[in-house]
Amino acid sequence: MTDIHTHTLYGLDDGSEGFEMSLKMLSMASKGGTKNIILTPHCNIPGGYLNYMNSTIADRFERLKAAAKEFVPDINLYLGMEVYASNDIPELLRRGMAITLNRSRYLLVEFNFGESPMYVFKVLQNIQRAGIVPVLAHPERYVFVQQEPYIVFDLVRAGIIIQINRGSILGKFGLRPKAVADYLLKSGMVHIVASDGHKSYSRVPILYDAYAEVERNYGKEYADMLFKKNPQNILLDKSPAFLKAKLRYGKEF
């Protein structure tokens, strides 16, 4: 499996607290069947984790990558960011302050959980105009999606890649995010499931349990697409496969 959304790079955000924890998180992921991991520290959060690309991020990535080759040799590490939404994202990318997933055309983007849908669409369209494909992180946790889950259909139709969290599928964030995640999965409006792993003891960076849940409820083909094929395609800068999305009234596009 390939995990495109993790906070395993130590000491940068609310994820891994140190080098040793990062190694433990990688070991947990490996034992759970994950082979490829994109490290995506928070970026561009005002008053919080700015984490614009710098030598500290690059050095810690190289250090962890070297250690992983020795201690967790079956894990491949790549670098990206989870970029907090703002109107100047294209400029941040142009200046090298924010980076895409493994330097591909795909950018992992998150919003404030209470953001308005109008602003979300505006920012995502702005990113698209710059030639970048937005990967929307955990929409099932956003209030506007919880209120009207079918709005994700419009995001998908607009070319946005939808990534939901392992924790949402398993009910780790409460009943509402789980219900929305189930709706999106059942409706075929999900491209990728990622761990959004933060710690070795909480919000852990594993995928096998969520894979088993999706396989049990929706079949192996769908599970493989969400956990293996599509994340791998993003990693390699290829287009993801996609089951036809269905509106709540059963219409497809």
Shape: globular
Class derived from helix and strand content: alpha/beta
Number of separate structural domains: 1
What summary fits the major beta sheet? 6 strands, parallel
Q: How much of the sequence is in beta strands? A: 5-15%
Termini distance?
28 Å
Report the helical percentage.
40-55%
The radius of gyration is 17 Å
Order of helices and strands: EHEEHEEHEHEHHEHHEHH
Spatial sequence of strands, sheet with the most strands:
3-5-6-7-8-9
Overview of this structure, please?
The chain has 253 residues and is α/β, with parallel strands linked by helices. The protein has one domain (2-235): Alpha-Beta Barrel (TIM Barrel), CATH 3.20.20. It has 10 helices and 9 strands. The protein has a 6-stranded parallel sheet with strand order 3-5-6-7-8-9. The chain has a 3-stranded parallel sheet with strand order 1-2-4. Helix 3 (89-94) links the parallel strand 5 and strand 6. The radius of gyration is 17 Å and the shape is globular. The two termini are 28 Å apart.
